Amino acid sequence: MYTLINGNELSRTMRAEMAEEAAQFTESRGRQIGLAVILAGEDSASKVYVRNKIRACEQVGIRSFSYYLPEDVAEKDMEELVQSLVDNDEVDGILVQLPMPKHLDSEKILKLIPAEKDVDGFSVSNMGKLALKQDCLVACTPNGVMQMLKRNGIDPKGKCATVVGRSNIVGKPMAMLLLNADATVTVCHSKTPDLKEKCLGADILVAAIGKPKFITADMVKEGAVVIDVGMDRDENGKLCGDVDFENVKDKCSYITPVPGGVGPMTITMLMYNTIEAAKARTRSI
Ligand code: GUN
C-alpha cells in the first residue's frame, strides 16, 4: 500500500504556521512583510501562477505589490521597475515571473535583484551558496519537495536518489539539496544512457522532465518514494504529471499526485522564502 503525499494539506498547515509568523513580524516591526511580483505579457499559465501567488500572500498576511506590464514592455522600463523595488525598503522579495517576453534579456534583468531579495533562489549567489551548503534562499519547487519528504519522515541520508531533469529551476537545485541531505544522487537528462536502470536504482525518484506520464511502472523500484514535479496535459487535455500515476502508484511507498502534490508547495515555499528574506534583512538593518 502506498501513502499519498498531499501537497494541498501540507500547504494549508504551513501557510497557517507562516500566518502566525508574519503577524508577529507586522506587530514587532510596524509594517507587513512585502513581496513584489512582476508579470510581463499575456501567458495564460503565468497569469494563473501570479494570481495564486497574490492569493497566497493574502492568506499568510504578506503585502503584495503586483505589476502587470504589456508584452512589448521596453527593457529600460522593466529595469527601472526592478531597480525601484530593489531600493524600496518595504519590499522584502522580488519575483519576475518566467518566462519573460522574448525580446527581454532575462539574465540581465534577474541580475538586478540582489541575493537578499531573490526569493526565487535563482541568483548566482544563492545557487552558489546552495552548492556550498551555506545558508541561502533556495528555489521554491525543490525546497518544497524537501519539505514534503521531511514532514513525511523520509530522510534522504544514505538513500539513492535519482533526479530526472537538469533545469536551473528544479533539477539542479533538487540534486544539490538531496546531496546536502546525504543522499547518493544521480542526475539524468535527455542524453542519459540507460535511463531506466538509473531510475530503477532510486529509493527516491524525482521526475522533473516536462513530458506527460514519462515515468512508467517498469522504471520504478518496489517501495520507492516517487515525487512528480510535472505539470503536463495528457492525450485528452487533462492535467497530469511526468509519472504514469495509475500504473506506478502500487509500486511506491510514497507518491505525490498531480494536481495536489508538488504544485501548491511551490507557492507555499515562496511565502516561506519571503518571510526568511524579511527576517534576514531586518537582522542586517
Ligand atoms: N515560472 C515557472 N516557475 C517559476 C518560478 O518558480 N519562478 C518564477 N519566477 N517563474 C516561474
Q: What does this 3D model show about the protein?
A:
The protein is of the alpha/beta class. Helix content is about 40%, strand content about 15%. It contains ten helices and eleven strands. The strands form three sheets. It has a six-stranded parallel beta sheet with strand order 1-11-8-7-5-6. A three-stranded parallel beta sheet has the order 3-2-4, with helices on both faces. Strand 2 (about 35-40), helix 2 (about 45-60) and strand 3 form a beta-alpha-beta unit. Helix 1 runs parallel beside helix 10 and helix 6 (about 140-150) runs parallel beside helix 7 (about 170-180). The model has no long low-confidence stretch (mean pLDDT about 95). The site of guanine (GUN) has 9 residues, from strand 4 and helix 6.
Give the rounded overall mean pLDDT: 97
Low-confidence runs of at least 5 consecutive residues: none
Spatially, the strands of the biggest sheet line up as: 1-11-8-7-5-6
Give the C-alpha Rg: 19 Å
Ligand types: guanine
In total, the number of strands is: 11
